[in-house]
Amino acid sequence: MINYPIARKKHEKTNNRANLGMTLESDIESTNTYYLVNDIAVIHKKPTPIQVVNVSYPARNKAKITEAYYKTPSTTDFNGIYKGHYIDFDAKETNSKTSMPLKNVHLHQIEHLKQVDKHGGIAFLIVHFKQYDEYFLLPSKVLFAYWDLQNDEKKGRKSIPYETFKNEAYLIKFGFKPRLDYLKVIDTYYLAKLK
Q: Which residues is 78 bridged to in the sheet?
C-alpha cells in the first residue's frame, strides 16, 4: 500500500484593512497581561462605547446583538498606571516603507493625547512598520508637531516620515516575554529624566 501525500490547499494572503492592527493590539495585550501578572503595571485596552439598539434571542441563553452604534468616538486604545505615572497610548500599523499616514490618527485622539500630556501623563503611539517588522514608541510631542504641520499651507504634511521614527522615536524590541517591552522605553527615556 502506498501512502500518497495529501494535497494541501494554498492559502492566499489577502490585504484586509479591517484587521489592520489586530496583531499589534494582541501583542500589546499579551505584553500588558505579562505586566499585570508580574505586578509591573496595570494597563488595559479600553472598550469601545456602543449603544445597543437590537438584540436577537434565538434561545434563552444565546442572546445576540444584531444592531449597535458607536456612542462616542473612542479616544485611544490603552491606558493605565506604571510606577505612579498615568500612561495613555494608541497602537497604529502601516504597510508603507516611507511613512506613517496621519490619516491613521483622528482629531479626537490628538485632542485626548494633548490633554493627557498637559496634565502630566505619558502619552504616545506605538507604531508598527510592517514592511520592516519594526516597532516604535512615538512620543506625543513628535506626533503633535507633525499633526500641526499638516494644517500649515506652506509646510503641510500628510504623514510622518520613517526617518523621523528612526531619529526621534524609540525602537521597541520584539521578544518572547513580554512581546513588546515598551515600559523599558518608558523607563529609559521618560522616567530616567525625572530623577
A: 45, 89
